[in-house]
Structures are given as structure tokens and as C-alpha cells.
Amino acid sequence: MNKRVFLSPPDVGDAERQLLLDAFDSNWIAPLGPHVDAFEQEFAESVGVPYAVALSSGTAALHLGLHVLGIGRGDDVLTSTMTFAATANAITYVGATPVFVDVARRTWTMDPDLLEEELEQRARTGRRQIAAVLSVDLYGQCCDYDRIAEICGRFGVPLIEDAAEALGATHGDKSAGAFGECAAFSFNGNKIITTSGGGMLVSHRREVIDRVRHLSTQARDAAPHYQHSSIGYNYRLSNLLAAVGRGQLQSLANKVTRRRIVNRIYWRGLDAPGIEFMPEAAYGVPNCWLTCITVDPSQFEADREDIRLVLEHENIESRPLWKPMHMQPVFAPCSMRGGRVSEDLFARGLCLPSGSSLTPVEQERVMNAVLEAPARISVRAVGQKS
Ligand SMILES: Cc1ncc(COP(=O)(O)O)c(C=O)c1O
């Protein structure tokens, strides 16, 4: 059996190992320490925002970002339906209700027209306005922030960025994470940089980050004894993991370049009728965290699931695009505007192995298997088509 090709495995090296050993030897084996401080500073510089706080996950960053901006019970938070569940889950953690909108076909990110429609309709009818917009930089592509920021500004609605998948992506001359009141990043094991698990909240506003730092360390007041005036959380990143994150950050530019090269090789190698790629918006440069295709079975003569099963048969991991949140049983009662684009992307979309350590030989294996799928759909019988 060929060695398994993973979708987006960790890509770590000697720098991470040395920094981790340094953290270990220093005995700062705690959710605070010099590597946490340095990681926050280096990360903020890399994104181009002044303040950052390292947390235990991207989900924790979303949760506390919403909380500190005052979003709570009775509030509606508008977000893109095309995302990982953590985006919508975090909205419910603060007692608010997600309101979903579809994505635009040309970017696969939040459709600004639908956002505008929702905010306009609420303003016109006197309905309680959306309390915050949580935009998602999907698969490493920034949203259309020229329009989204303008619309949010016009209606006085704060913007929060879920940049979990988008570290190193740009929009104009700014990086993902530089838009909105605050932005959340993830260092989960499959992300462009990883600390095995971890996250970061960044903001242009010092008070936002100071408050999150306080709440994420059990909200302990400044007193010699343990005193608490707020409900706190245990959400800080370990000093050991921050050391790994610092090493990862050193090679971020290289990792983005590698993923973009992988993406370009797929574009060239999978230039077949019926296969299309996630469009690249003209306003920015995506980090190509995952290369995603859609498959038109009437032209390619195999569907998305056929391809996935052929890849699996070759011991290659691939994954359908995110199942939209409005199609998830848990969010079925939530309101949804539009939906045809994300439903179609989910039905026909597939994420291909895209790691920064993917070798040319492995990528060749992936592309051959995809191209052979129409001739090999008999393997469907042995796979489990869902
Ligand atoms: C869009 C999006 N938001 C949030 C998260 C949550 O990040 P974490 O797994 O670090 O909690 C992820 C990834 O896991 C994600 O892809």
C-alpha cells in the first residue's frame, strides 16, 4: 500500500524543535511565559495589527472576541453559511443567534449583496439590527472587504473576522486579520501553521485584547488573593505550544509560497472539462490553505464522490467542501438568506491534499487518481458512498 497522502498535515522542522526544547528547559511549562509573549508580538507584526493574545484555540478566540464586543443574549450575528461549525458555534456560546447568508459565486466568501439586503431590510422595517457581522476568509481567501466594511460601516454594525484559515493571505495591501474590530486565527493541526492546537485574537484596539487576556486567564482581579469580578475562562495557550508557533511563524512566507505552488500545479495538471477551481478574487492573494475544485459530472463523467472514493482507494485523503451551516441539523431553525451557491458547492466540491510538505511525487499521484476517476468508478462499489 502506498504511503497515505494527507489533506493538510503539520509541516514542522528543526526551528520548532529547538524552540520547544528551549521552552521545556526553561521550566516555563505553563499557559504563560516568554514564548507566549514573543509569539503574540511576532504574530501581531506579521499580520500588521498592534495587539494580539494567544489562546487555546481559534474557537476560543471567536468566543471571547464576540463576548468582549458585548454580543450576547437576544443578539443576532450574521455570518456566512459556508464555514466550519466553530464559527456558528461561537455565536451561540455568547447566547446570540446565527443569521446565515450565502456566499458569492465569484469568491465563495460572504455575498456582500445579501449582507446589504439583510441590514437594509432590518433598518427599513425597524427590526432589531444585526449586532455583529462575522465574516469568514474561506479556505484562505479574504472576503470582499471593500464592500463588506463599507456596508457594515454604513449601518453601524461591527465587523469581526474569522481568519482561522487565512493566515498569510492578503486583501490589497493588508493581511487577513487586519479588518474589523478583531480577528481570530487557528493553529489547529491542519492549518497553515500549527501548534497542534491553539489560536490567536488580534485587534487594533488595545482594550479589546487586554480584556480578552484577562478573561482568558480566569478573570483574576489584581489582588494578592484570588478575587474575581467577572466570569473567567481557561483559554490561554501553553508556553510550550507558543514556542512551536514561533518556529512555524518563521517559515510562514515559505509555507504560503509552497501552498500556492501546489495550487498552481493542480490548475495545470487538472485542466479537464468539468473540473473548476475555487476562483481567486482580483482584490487579494489567497494563501491557498486548501486547493478546492468543483466537479460537473455531465462533463467529467465522474462526480465529486466518485473522485473522493478513487482517492481513498489510493490512500489519499480528500474532503467534501464544508457542509453549509443552514443545512446542518443543529442550525436548521436559524434564518438563511439565499443558499443556492453554497448548496451547489457542497454538492460538487472537493478539497485536495494541499500541505506545504506535499512532494511532487505525491501530488502526481493525486492528479493521476483524479484524472483516472471516470474510468475507475467501479471502485464505488467497494467504497461507501454517502
Ligand atoms: C473557519 C474556521 N473557523 C474556526 C475554526 C476553529 O479553529 P480551532 O480548531 O482552532 O478551534 C476553524 C478550524 O478549525 C475554521 O476553519
Q: Describe it for me?
A:
52% of the residues are buried. Helix 3 packs parallel to helix 4 (85-93) and helix 5 (112-125) packs parallel to helix 6. The strands form three sheets. This protein has an eight-stranded mixed β-sheet with strand order 1-9-8-5-4-2-3-14, with helices on both faces. It is built from 13 helices and 15 strands. It has 386 residues and is an alpha/beta fold. Helices cover 39% and strands 15% of the residues. The two termini are 24 Å apart. The protein binds pyridoxal-5'-phosphate. Pyridoxal-5'-phosphate (PLP) is lined by residues 57-59, 83-84, 86-87, 136, 162, 164-165, 186, 188, 199. Pyridoxal-5'-phosphate binds at residues 57-59, 83-84, 86-87, 136, 162, 164-165, 186, 188, 199.
- Enumerate the distinct ligands: pyridoxal-5'-phosphate
The strand order across the widest sheet is 1-9-8-5-4-2-3-14
Beta-strand percentage? 5-15%
- Total number of helical segments? 13
- The total strand number stands at 15
What is the helical fraction, as a range of percent? 25-40%
Q: pLDDT below 50 for ≥5 consecutive residues: which ranges?
A: none
Radius of gyration: 21 Å
- Rounded mean pLDDT is 96
The structure class reads alpha/beta
- What profile does the largest beta sheet have? 8 strands, mixed
Cα distance spanning the termini: 24 Å
Any idea what the shape is? globular
